[in-house]
Amino acid sequence: DLVVEDKIKVNIRQSTTYPESGNINIQINPEKPMDFTLNLRIPEWSTENSIKVNGRSVLGINSGKYLSISRTWKKDDKITIDLDMRGKLHLNHDHQAITRGPIVLARDSRFKDGFIDETSVVQEENGFVNLTPAMNKPENIWLAFTVPCKMGTDLEGQGAMSQPILLCDFASAGNTWIPAIRYRVWIRKTLNVMQMDYERY
Predict the structure, then answer these.
(1) Alpha carbons within 13 A on the beta-carbon side of 131
(2) Do the Cβ atoms of 15 and 21 come closer than 8 Å?
(3) 145-156: per-residue pLDDT in tens?
(4) In sequence order, which ranges of the chain are alpha helices (DSSP H)?
(5) Distance, CA of 13 to CA of 54 (rounded, Å)
(6) What single DSSP character describes residue 195?
(7) CA distance 104 to 185
(8) In a 3-state reduction of DSSP, which class is residue 22?
(9) Within 10 Å of residue 162's Cβ, how many Cβ atoms?
(10) Which of 81, 76, 78 is nearest to 33 (CA)?
């Protein structure tokens, strides 16, 4: 509950599973209809956003800034927010990392889906990675997704075929206190000399 101008109480109720999903529902309940501005922070990483007030789209949404909504608010007004939770690929010195919304993902040896230090080429399109929620995951792992990759250095033979590997949220990675369990965020990208610029000797 908030107290705004003229000592009018406004109840704001939020329901969401964020950051498991990017959907956020906010219900506005003032004691009586009143004018005020509500500022919603839009994360910088969220590049495709949808915000609606009572089912009507709001325009002028800018990532990394606040969205100000000024109107006469009434009982049971509803705001629905959908943030961009697509997987994004990040490259740094021949290494790759993947984020989903505000969450960094990591390989974890508990998945038993291969050698976590093996080189790979993460399959992406315009910098986005197709993440599929994993149905079965080890104990104490919160979020897990399969990611399509070309594994190893054989990029013309078996390695040319894309296969799924599993990643989990960084907070869950390696959280067993067992030294044998390993995890990594930055995955080394397979060197592909066929795609490198030719340099004369």
Answers:
(1) 26
(2) no
(3) 999 999 888 777
(4) none
(5) 15
(6) G
(7) 8
(8) coil
(9) 14
(10) 76
Residue owning tokens 């397979």: 190
Q: pTM of the full predicted structure?
A: 0.87
Classify residue 59 by its DSSP letter.
Answer: P
167 Rama sector, left if φ>0, alpha if ψ -120 to 50, beta otherwise: beta
Amino acid identity for residue 182 in this structure:
R
What is the arithmetic mean of pLDDT over 15-19? 96
Q: Which of 146, 141, 148 is nearest to 173 (CA)?
A: 141
What the block records as the tokens of 140 is: 């104490």
Q: Nearest-CA neighbor of 99 among 46, 150, 41?
A: 46
Distance CA(46)–CA(63), nearest Å, equals 6
Q: Among all chains, which residue has been given the structure tokens 């989903």?
A: 100
Q: State the residue for tokens 């976590």.
A: 116
Locate 168 and state its tokens. 């989990």
Dump pLDDT digits (tens) for 62-73: 999 999 999 999
